[in-house]
């Protein structure tokens, strides 16, 4: 019957302000972590539609129609922002290009390149939003839980010493309860670390695709045609051959 006197309720009832503060911090970390995981996970699900949206973009009869297809199939995506930024830069260059000004001496390709790089930088910042928080939670939560354990053990030993009953059954219960804080810390940290690694890898893949799209856009703005994809022997054997030319946007 004595073993039933120990547990979470008993730990919370006999704990002091420090233990309760640690528990509140871990709870806040957990809620924040799962919120970020949910938001980023939903965003990754939407990002999976980008490949089909890019195919629709390059199959469009004009740049305006292509951007409209991107907006319809992949709204608020980095690819849509990149296409709009490139189009806006090209329009600005056509309307305001003047050799008599300082900006007029800038090469048109370099101007568009800088516009595309700016869009990629903004998209990169947005993709990495929240990852720092996940990394921080994953790295600090175990130590917060460990601090709660150390403080709980100290608090339990002080109470046992004051009561004068230092038998094994009197020590094991409070110490075991204190170890629960370490378990809580690991419970908070492990999902955050796994999610951080998964989202970081997904961001690398998406940024590589975004960089390739920017390269194709730059080629189109410079030459009026998209660079034909080149299949390697491995990719040609693994996937059906695609057309080597794309429709001009």
UniProtKB/TrEMBL annotation:
GO BP annotation list: protein import
Domain MotA/TolQ/ExbB proton channel: 107-210
Membrane topology: Multi-pass membrane protein
Main location: membrane
Compartments, as annotated in UniProt: Cell inner membrane; Membrane
Thylakoid in keyword set: no
UniProt-listed Pfam families: MotA_ExbB (PF01618)
Job description of the protein: Involved in the TonB-dependent energy-dependent transport of various receptor-bound substrates. Protects ExbD from proteolytic degradation and functionally stabilizes TonB.
Subunit structure: The accessory proteins ExbB and ExbD seem to form a complex with TonB.
Family the UniProt entry places it in: Belongs to the exbB/tolQ family.
Protein name: Biopolymer transport protein ExbB
Originating organism: Parazoarcus communis SWub3 = DSM 12120
């Amino acid at each position: 019957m004595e073993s039933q006197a120990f547990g979470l309720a008993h730990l919370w009832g006999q704990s002091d302000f420090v233990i309760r503060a640690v528990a509140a911090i871990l709870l806040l970390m957990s809620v924040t972590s799962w919120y970020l995981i949910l938001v980023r996970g939903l965003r990754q699900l939407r990002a999976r539609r980008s490949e089909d949206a890019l195919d629709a973009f390059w199959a469009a009869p004009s740049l305006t129609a292509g951007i409209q297809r991107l907006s319809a199939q992949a709204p608020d995506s980095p690819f849509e922002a990149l296409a709009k930024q490139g189009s806006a830069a090209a329009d600005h260059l056509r309307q305001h290009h003047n050799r008599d000004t300082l900006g007029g001496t800038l090469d048109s390709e370099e101007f568009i390149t800088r516009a595309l790089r700016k869009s990629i930088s903004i998209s990169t910042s947005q993709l990495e939003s929240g990852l720092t928080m996940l990394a921080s939670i994953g790295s600090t939560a175990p130590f917060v839980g460990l601090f709660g354990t150390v403080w709980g053990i100290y608090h339990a030993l002080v109470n046992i010493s004051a009561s004068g009953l230092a038998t094994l059954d009197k020590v094991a219960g409070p110490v075991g309860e204190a170890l629960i804080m370490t378990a809580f810390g690991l419970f908070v940290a492990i999902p955050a670390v796994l999610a951080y690694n998964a989202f970081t890898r997904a961001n690398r893949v998406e940024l590589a695709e975004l960089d390739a799209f920017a390269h194709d856009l730059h080629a189109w703005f410079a030459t009026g045609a998209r660079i034909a994809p080149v299949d390697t022997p491995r990719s040609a054997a693994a996937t059906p051959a695609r057309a080597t030319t794309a429709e001009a946007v």
